[in-house]
Amino acid sequence: MDAAGGGTGTGRAFIGSFTSAGGLGILEAAVDPATGALTETRVVDGVANPSYLAFEHTGAGPVLYAVSETTQGAVAAYDIASPVPRPICAPVAVHGEAPTHLAVTRGHLLTANYDSGSVTVLPLAADGTPQAASDVLRHVGSGPDPARQLGPHAHQVLPDPSGRWVLSVDLGTDSVRICSLDAQAGKLTLHGETALRPGTGPRHLAFHPGGGHAYVLGELEPTVIVCRWDDAAGVLEPVGATLLFPDGADGAVSPSAPVVSHDGRHLWAAVRGTDTIAVLALDAIGEQADLVASVPCGGRWPRDLVLHPSGTRLYAANEGSGDVTWLDVDSTTGIPHRAGSLSVPAASNVVFV
User: Fold this and answer.
1) How far apart are alpha carbons 289 and 275 in whole angstroms?
2) Exposure b/e, 275-285, CB count within 10 A at least 16 = b
3) Rounded mean pLDDT of 188-211?
4) DSSP string, 128-169
5) Is the separation of the CB atoms in 119 and 154 below 8 Å?
6) Which residues touch 117 (CB under 8 Å, ≥6 apart)?
7) Mean pLDDT, the chain, integer
8) What is the largest CA-CA distance in the chain?
9) What are the residues whose beta carbons fall under 8 Å from the beta carbon of 135, sequence distance 6 or more?
10) How many CB atoms lie within 10 A of CB 250?
């Protein structure tokens, strides 16, 4: 981890929010390089419920992508090379309901569609413009929770560090699917599926910087599941689990986002309900995760947690309290301390560009 206190890296951030809950859509903010403080600069015109954002450098310049987490389901794209971001196309349908996450890999934009339990592939033009969907891979299965797991609910999709595989995390089926992507045809092929303990309700995963391990965060069961990742074989193998509370769950809790430090020594997990950030210490190879602390996130219902590219600060998007808090991270202990906040109604996600 970089030394805490300093600050290099990006000077712009974009924050997604739920317009259906009073959010402004996408908010652009300036980032103070010394303190990490956010200052609102403008609201970006866009789509309904841009709950998750992604950033990519294209041949034509930097592009910001956003899901539209609605029943119709769509993605939007913005040229952010100029001081004032502008849409580069009309929203593009994903043919899935309530997309909650998106990622870019090998010239394609992928979305995880929660309500329909599917993953959509959209080819990208040379300038980064999303094209019509080339594939929709539908998940199958269910879990033991009758309120949340009657069917599949894809919550996250992302490439592995090698770029060879696409992983999708499904809360409804208690599993992680591993797929190959045919970049020529824009098609996904299921390669394998890793089953997790029934009722875990996996939400998101994060990779260790060494590439050999991944950490799956349970939303229904407040655990971090440590997995070995074999990128040659495309195999994800659970090897252990760590509860996010010393004596297990206490009341209604809903973990949301795992983050791994750049040096692989610490793992953080945002926990809604307790409104905390769990701090876990990782061993030298990343296979053992031990809970060492739990600190306030600085707001209510932290839907997302993001590490600044400098590695020195965490940012929590607090949907319930309508703000984004930033926390300085102690470089030795990994324990974050609240340093400030910016009002963002129904905040859901932060991305730095």
Assistant:
1) 21
2) bbbbbbebeee
3) 98
4) S-B-S--EEEEP----S-TTT-SS--EEEEEE-TTSS-EEEE
5) yes
6) 138, 139, 140, 151, 152, 153, 154, 170, 172, 173
7) 95
8) 52
9) 120, 121, 185, 186, 187, 188
10) 11
Q: Is pLDDT above 70 for 9?
A: no
| Helices marked H in 80-119 | none
Residue 219 has pLDDT above 90, yes or no: yes
Token pair recorded at residue 194 = 């890793």
Give every CB contact of residue 192 below 8 A, 6+ residues apart in sequence.
Answer: 177, 178, 234, 235, 236
Residue 251 is predicted with a pLDDT of 62
What residues contact residue 44 under an 8 Å CB cut-off, 6+ apart? 14, 25, 26, 27, 28, 78, 85
Q: Find residue 92's DSSP bridge partners.
A: 75
Give yes or no for a contact between 241 and 174, defined as CB atoms under 8 angstroms apart: no
Tokens (6 digits) for 132:
């019509």
- Structural contact between residues 88 and 100, judged by C-beta atoms closer than 8 angstroms: no
Q: Which two structure tokens, joined as six digits, stand for 309? A: 């590219």
Pairing of strands 254-260, 135-138: unpaired
Cα 82 vs. chain centroid, distance in angstroms? 26
Are 294 and 276 in contact by the 8 Å Cβ rule? The answer is yes
Task: Using a cut of 0.90, tell me whether the model's pTM lies above it.
Answer: yes
* CB-based contact 114:155 (threshold 8 Å): yes
Note whether 205 and 169 are within 8 A (CB): yes
